[in-house]
């Protein structure tokens, strides 16, 4: 059953929310097709929003007011059926205390995702297998797969991944912005490799992931880690949110040779919309300094009060007013990466992972309401409805199904 709302006093008919969310320059025909597709985003950082004070996934928020990008009303408007909701943990010290704090944080973040589903069973359903997606979408509910971004919380005990698997995790990355105990990062501040790929412990983690049926995610890890994963993994590898180095030469992006190697092993690159990885932008040092100071405060105050959060939002809005970001990447920049990947490896090996609520979003695609524009652009580029369905969910579900099939009984 679709939610409805009154358009105005002059109208007596109640119309579906989705019918009023058609983005500009997207035809009704394309919009209705988009709503019909099963759409999954492979990297949603939205679980961070779940723990914000006075914030509800069931209420509509604004990307220009509280800076969040995903909630239930906007998912309905943008035709997003769900995706992989990430347990993200920032990289900390490689110490017993650091591991303990990260483990506890990650477990609680995973519980927040499970609590979201349990609190609203009419709208959200936990998905554990590839075959779960279609019936959940057919029932009009949002699909909730779980993933891990940064395996740091596992400490040095790879068996702990089984606890997260039992919680619902079906995809896991290895590193994030810095090297950790499992793998080299593509963006470590040292700019030097530690292991030259996966560490010995990282190789043990990969074996356990393959045994359980967890998809290995190479996003944020170095090219050498991807090489190791392609050589050692018994199932295909996923890049949950990455881009193309041929379009913009950034360490987080993947060159064409790696794209082809990924595809040759059945893997998929899910295209990112994180602006800093799409193209170079003009420096804005005053804005960067102000944002870094604000983010530092936010990290220190992990459990903020409603009043403190309101003050932080006011500071962020003031930063936007004083130091506007006038050279942000655009939807066309995002599509340049998407179309390049499609040219190199074809529609069987490309998907979508936009990094919502984790820094993703570009001019022209600010939050999930704008997602039909991707469908429209792909169709205009000559891709078929069947191709678009693969890109939106078929490919990532195929990789998940392969991991399930390869696990040890």
From TrEMBL:
Source domain of life: Bacteria
SUPFAM superfamilies: Metallo-dependent hydrolases (SSF51556)
GO biological process, alphabetically ordered: proteolysis
This protein's UniProt keywords: Signal
UniProt signal peptide: 1-21
GO molecular-function terms, A-Z: metallodipeptidase activity
Cross-referenced Pfam families: Peptidase_M19
UniProt-listed PROSITE patterns: RENAL_DIPEPTIDASE_2 (PS51365)
Record carries keyword Signal: yes
Listed Gene3D superfamilies: L27 domain, Metal-dependent hydrolases
Protein name: Membrane dipeptidase
